């Protein structure tokens, strides 16, 4: 069995603290942050086995899901998208998590 990596509570915040209002841009920013963390630990998008996407507005689901498809292509991790009442910062339209398993 390989090493398990969990990246959780990832918000769409830029280094200067700003948040783009577009849900697709927010989704890309979350994936950028999470995949950079995964790469720092020796993993890659191919190692992702599960993702969770939390959205505030169900109308953003298609845009957020499309970004997931762009990122993962043929990888096809188990994935859940959940509509929540709110996130910690009202500017956030999405928050995400991933789990990855690296071979020994």
UniProtKB/TrEMBL annotation:
Residues 1-21 are annotated as: Disordered. InterPro entries: RutC-like_sf (IPR035959), YjgF/YER057c/UK114 (IPR006175). It comes from the Bacteria. PANTHER family: BLR7761 PROTEIN (PTHR43857), YJGH FAMILY PROTEIN (PTHR43857:SF1). This is RidA family protein. It comes from Nocardioides endophyticus.
């Amino acid at each position: 069995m390989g090493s398990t990596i969990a990246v959780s509570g990832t918000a769409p915040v830029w280094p200067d603290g700003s948040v783009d209002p577009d849900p697709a841009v927010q989704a890309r920013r979350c994936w950028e942050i999470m995949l950079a963390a995964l790469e720092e630990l020796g993993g890659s998008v191919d190692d992702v086995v599960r993702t969770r996407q939390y959205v505030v507005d169900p109308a953003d689901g298609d845009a957020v899901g499309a970004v997931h498809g762009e990122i993962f292509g043929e990888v096809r991790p188990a994935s859940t998208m959940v509509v929540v009442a709110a996130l910690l910062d009202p500017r956030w339209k999405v928050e995400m998590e991933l789990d990855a398993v690296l071979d020994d």
